[in-house]
């Protein structure tokens, strides 16, 4: 390869005005479409030969030249020849360029399909993922994308070879396009040392080479990651919203709720076998111990509603003696939610499909009660007249105590003489007094304060709502330091009850013919922000003033036999919250209201959010699909998006310019080109290998010599003045 094309300056800038350099830098404008008169007659391109040449080029593009060989064996093909024919080095034809772009059709279509599957969260099936088959498809897609990227890289190098010069090391990039290690070889770093590259050309080469070679290494794993469906992907089979003919405030009232209209069945708590319970302990709101108990006892063939209760112990310090505040929070789906799910499953188009699925969730967005109860001891050392007249301490929303409750003497004077007695079996009896209800003294608060009184006395007594007018005073007069076996005392606890209607998601879980309706115990932040506070008409409610309330709460808090739950972790606060939540969950079934969901004709008349309660029903299947999101998914989507962008830009460029070529697609073809080129005389000894980056940075290009043959020539060859080289002519065979 001894021909020198031109110097770096002369190969990239306007040449001197000499007849030779004018010939050297002449392009296709001078001889496009012309055949050289000195070539043999058999090499003259006829229409038939041109068609064969185009077909051969297309086979070369797709690297399936074996087809030509097979055809030569089967039929007497005119392609069959002992020597290589002349070929088109560069085309300028939009039709040919369009046909060459077919190479990119399959890989780009596959990449776009995978991206669409991810963007749309396409769901495949509940059981089958076809991972084994898709692995082979991913490998095929990888090969197709790599061929597409290599063609783009070859086009970039090929265009610079015939129009200008490129660093010698860039040629190995065409051979090692699928090897990421090329990016730390001297071959690549020679691009940075190449002085003829300036401005836009250098920026394109420096950026395009690592991007394209990096893509060849990344598109394969990215395709596999995006092609394999992930388990646990959701599919929304149903999402509809129904509207009632009345408002949520009427159906689930929140103002002065008349408790006596709907009697509380306190015994229902102890027969509830489905529950979730969480226990936390804090010191000044700092997390402490945690315990969670979950019961899986379900009644078959019926709709079990999960009673979700949590208990938090707050130890308040810095006030002399520390105080313990028990906070209980409880929620349970309403009985109307059971009817909603039953109605949904009764529809054959959903019921049969749901029961046939293994992994799915059915949810409705509706109102449910959530009750928060805080219990504490408001009086200390009340066995003297001073303490009896002292105000009780209220635990406020600011997590502080405030002495704003009435005095204990005032409380006792307002107590009823009706008590419940229950024998314990240890020669003693538990006494439950009628609770006293007060409105919360906090400004704009809808909470209620319940003061509970209980005690234990000697003797075995069982009496319901018995009258004992002298019992309270006797307990107050008892000596706390008495040495009798059973100490007489009066235990006083204050509880602040704050119930709410919260609108949120209620879920149905079906497992082995058991149905469990559940909801988040505390609700999400957005649900709590839209909660409606409930004001109970507790002061005038006889039900809440009965000693049975205190007894029922004590049964749950201290002597509970609820399922498998250890009663030690229950408290009066959590028991109180569960009791009120269970009672509220009976609405609107207890209201007796004539309400129904609007049909299509009624909905056409218009829906008002304040006048019509809405219920959203959602059925979600879980199986194999493309809805999962993770870091690997996002990275793979970014890689394939970049590949699609680069390829589409390249295809549009070839369509607009009509540029197309299959020259030097293989390393062996570059070797063949070098064999018919003159040896350069300034590179030194390169027969065994190359160690110098300056050698890799030598400018090299493809030019036409005097014999109308192509050569690979270096820009710094000595015989430049006598080389007689010129640029290639498009649409011409060489």
Indicate the topology.
Blueprint: H1 8-12, H2 19-24, H3 28-31, H4 47-61, H5 66-74, E1 91-92, H6 94-100, H7 105-119, E2 123-125, H8 131-163, E3 166-167, H9 170-175, H10 186-193, H11 199-227, E4 230-243, H12 248-251, H13 267-270, E5 275-283, E6 286-294, E7 303-305, E8 307-316, E9 323-331, H14 335-346, H15 348-355, E10 360-376, H16 385-389, E11 391-395, E12 401-407, H17 408-413, E13 418-423, E14 428-433, E15 436-439, E16 448-458, E17 463-467, H18 471-477, E18 489-511, E19 514-519, H19 525-529, E20 532-533, H20 547-558, H21 572-584, H22 600-603, E21 614-625, H23 631-657, E22 659-660, H24 667-675, H25 693-696, E23 699-704, E24 710-714, H26 720-723
Parallel strand pairs: 5-8, 7-19
Antiparallel strand pairs: 1-22, 2-21, 3-23, 4-21, 5-6, 8-9, 9-10, 10-18, 10-21, 11-12, 13-14, 13-17, 14-16, 15-16, 16-18, 18-19, 18-20, 23-24
Helix pairs in contact: 6-23, 7-8, 7-23, 8-11, 11-23, 20-21
Q: Explain this structure to me?
A:
By secondary structure, the protein is α+β, with helices and mostly antiparallel strands. It is built from 26 helices and 24 strands. The protein has a 17-stranded mixed sheet that branches. Strands 3-23-24 form a three-stranded antiparallel sheet. Strands 1-22 form a two-stranded antiparallel ribbon. α6 runs antiparallel to α23 and α7 packs across α8 (131-163). The longest helix is centred in the first third of the chain and has 33 residues, at 131-163.
């Amino acid at each position: 390869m001894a021909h020198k094309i031109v110097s770096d300056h002369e190969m990239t800038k306007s040449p001197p005005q000499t007849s030779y350099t004018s010939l050297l830098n002449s392009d296709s404008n001078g001889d496009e479409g012309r055949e050289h008169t000195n070539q043999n007659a058999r090499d003259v391109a006829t229409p038939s030969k041109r068609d064969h040449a185009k077909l051969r080029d297309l086979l070369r593009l797709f690297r399936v030249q074996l087809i030509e060989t097979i055809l030569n064996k089967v039929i007497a093909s005119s392609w069959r020849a002992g020597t290589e024919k002349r070929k088109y080095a560069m085309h300028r034809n939009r039709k040919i360029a369009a046909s060459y772009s077919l190479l990119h059709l399959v890989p780009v279509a596959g990449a776009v399909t995978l991206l669409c599957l991810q963007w749309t969260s396409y769901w495949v099936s509940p059981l089958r993922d076809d991972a084994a088959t898709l692995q082979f498809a991913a490998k095929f897609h990888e090969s197709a994308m790599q061929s597409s990227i290599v063609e783009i890289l070859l086009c970039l190098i090929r265009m610079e070879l015939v129009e200008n010069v490129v660093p010698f090391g860039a040629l190995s990039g065409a051979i090692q396009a699928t090897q990421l290690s090329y990016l730390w070889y001297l071959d690549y770093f020679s691009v940075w040392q190449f002085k003829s590259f300036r401005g836009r050309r250098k920026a394109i080469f420096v950026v395009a080479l690592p991007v394209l070679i990096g893509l060849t290494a990344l598109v394969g794993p990215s395709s596999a990651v995006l092609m394999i469906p992930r388990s646990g992907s959701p599919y929304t089979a149903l999402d509809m919203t129904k509207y009632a003919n009345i408002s949520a405030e009427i159906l689930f009232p929140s103002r002065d709720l008349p408790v006596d209209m709907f009697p509380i069945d306190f015994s229902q708590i102890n027969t509830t076998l489905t529950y979730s319970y969480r226990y936390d302990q804090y010191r000044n709101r700092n997390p402490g111990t945690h315990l969670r108990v979950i019961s899986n006892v379900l009644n078959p063939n019926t709709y079990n509603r999960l009673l979700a209760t949590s208990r938090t112990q707050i130890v308040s310090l810095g006030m002399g003696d520390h105080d313990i505040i028990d906070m209980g929070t409880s929620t349970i789906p309403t009985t109307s939610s059971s009817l909603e799910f039953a109605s949904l499953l009764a529809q054959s188009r959903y019921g049969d499909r749901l029961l046939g699925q293994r992994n799915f969730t059915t949810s409705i967005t509706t109102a449910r009660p959530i009750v928060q109860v805080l219990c504490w001891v408001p009086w200390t050392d009340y066995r003297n007249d001073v303490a009896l007249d002292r105000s009780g301490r209220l635990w406020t929303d600011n997590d502080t105590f405030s002495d704003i409750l009435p005095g204990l003497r005032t409380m006792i004077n307002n107590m009823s003489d009706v008590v419940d007695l229950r024998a314990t079996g240890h020669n003693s009896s538990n006494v439950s007094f009628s609770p006293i209800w007060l409105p919360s003294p906090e400004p704009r608060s809808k909470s209620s304060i319940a003061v509970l009184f209980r005690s234990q006395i000697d003797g075995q007594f069982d009496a319901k709502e018995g009258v004992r007018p002298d019992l309270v005073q006797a307990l107050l007069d008892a000596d706390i330091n008495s040495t009798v076996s059973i100490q007489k005392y009066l235990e006083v606890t204050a509880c602040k009850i704050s119930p709410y209607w919260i609108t949120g998601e209620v879920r149905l879980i079906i497992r082995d013919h058991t149905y469990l309706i559940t909801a988040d115990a505390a609700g999400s932040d957005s649900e709590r922000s839209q909660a409606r506070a409930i004001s109970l008409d507790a002061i005038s409610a006889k039900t809440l003033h009965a000693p049975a309330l205190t007894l029922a709460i004590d049964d749950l808090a201290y002597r509970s036999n609820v399922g498998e739950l250890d009663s030690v972790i229950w408290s009066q606060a959590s028991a109180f919250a569960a009791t009120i939540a269970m009672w509220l969950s009976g609405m609107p079934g207890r209201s007796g209201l004539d309400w129904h969901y609007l049909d299509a004709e009624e909905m056409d008349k218009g829906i008002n959010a304040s006048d019509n309660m809405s219920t959203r029903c959602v059925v979600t299947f879980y199986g194999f699909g493309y809805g999962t999101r993770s870091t690997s998914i996002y990275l793979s989507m970014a890689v394939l998006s970049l590949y699609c962008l680069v390829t589409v830009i390249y295809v549009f460029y070839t369509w607009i310019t009509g540029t197309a070529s299959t020259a030097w697609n293989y390393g062996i073809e570059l070797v063949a080109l070098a064999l018919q080129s003159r040896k350069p005389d300034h590179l030194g000894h390169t027969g065994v290998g190359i160690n110098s980056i300056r050698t890799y940075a030598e400018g090299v290009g493809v030019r036409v010599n005097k014999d109308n043959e192509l050569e690979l020539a270096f820009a710094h060859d000595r015989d430049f003045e006598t080389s007689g080289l010129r640029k290639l002519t498009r649409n011409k065979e060489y």
